[in-house]
UniProtKB/TrEMBL annotation:
PANTHER family: PROTEIN PREY, MITOCHONDRIAL, ZGC:162634. Coiled coil: none annotated. Belongs to the UPF0434 family. HAMAP family: UPF0434 (MF_01187). GO terms for cellular component: cytosol. It comes from Gluconobacter roseus NBRC 3990. Gene3D superfamilies: 2.20.25.10. InterPro entries: Trm112-like (IPR005651). This is UPF0434 protein GRO01_19120. It holds the Pfam family Trm112p.
């Protein structure tokens, strides 16, 4: 189920590892932290901001 992430929510969230900004990937339904090279999943419209739930990404 692809749902849009509220832009206001995205502006409030930061990477829990680097405290840096996140970008929203609509296709994979993930929040991407380029500095940490992590992708945090969004499940049922809820961002899962736990480092152990994130997947490593190529950077």
């Amino acid at each position: 189920m692809n749902t849009e992430l509220d832009p206001r929510l995205l502006s409030l969230l930061v990477c829990p590892v680097t405290k840096g900004p996140l970008t929203y990937d609509r296709n994979t339904q993930e929040l991407i932290s380029p500095r940490a090279k992590l992708a945090f999943p969004i499940r049922d419209g809820i961002p899962i901001m736990l480092p152990e739930e994130a997947r490593q990404i190529e950077g």
